[in-house]
Amino acid sequence: MSVLEGCALMAEKSNGPSTATIVLIAVLVTPVVLGVIFWLADSGSAQARGTLPDVRGKGLQWAHSQIKKAGFGNIQNHDALGRDRRWSDDKGWMVCFEDPRPGGLATNVQVKLGVVKVDETCPSTDQGRYQSAVATMPDLINRTAYISSKILGDNASVRYMNRSNGHEVTRGLGDWRICAQAPKAGQPFNGVPVTTLVVPYDKRC
Questions:
Q1: How far is the CA of 191 from the CAs of 45, 194, 196, in angstroms?
Q2: For tag attachment on the chain, is the N or C end more exposed, with fewer CB atoms within 10 Å?
Q3: Has residue 126 been placed in a domain?
């Protein structure tokens, strides 16, 4: 039985307002009631928000504690030099880059921190972030071989040749810096083999 039929039946069994009056009241009140119900449901499922603190230049362990204290629990760290280094002690690292920017945000966002060792200098740009190559050869110069492998993708045919002795480098790609590449940046990249010349990361090209 619908709401309108129920109201009409109640009116027939009582000496109160007429059926027409009951129906009119039901028509006017029902949208309001439904609106309140939907508002309560929506407010109950609203995403919590918080203020993400600015932790750039801070120690990584301290940064984690402040971000979690602000209500953000999804934190991801990466090597801001693109060297793919691993660590167990956050006290030995500091934050260079923070994404998203500090400010008011939904607390379920992932906070990405680009970090370096405390005795290192932050790079001008986050070398641990990259965009995958699609149709055009990207500029790989001064990127690590590790990040370059991510940029070009797992299916690319890439060789990393040690500039000093001509031997191919196949391991520890995060410890090598690219100094030359073929094809050059801006040329088509459509599955053609790629060759690079690399030097140890602590050396300049």
A1: 47, 9, 15
A2: N
A3: no
Specify whether 24 is located in the same domain as 54: no
What is the rounded CA–CA span in Å between residue 155 and residue 174? Answer: 19
* Domain range for 157: 145-200
Per-residue pLDDT reduced to its tens digit, 63-107: 999 999 999 999 999 999 999 998 989 999 999 999 999 999 999
Can you tell me whether residue 77 is helix, strand or coil? strand
Report how many domains make up the chain: 3
On whether residue 124 sits in a domain, the answer given is no
* Residue 81: CB atoms within 10 Å: 24
For residue 173, CA distances in Å to 77, 110, 205 come to 19, 27, 16
The whole-model pTM stands at 0.73
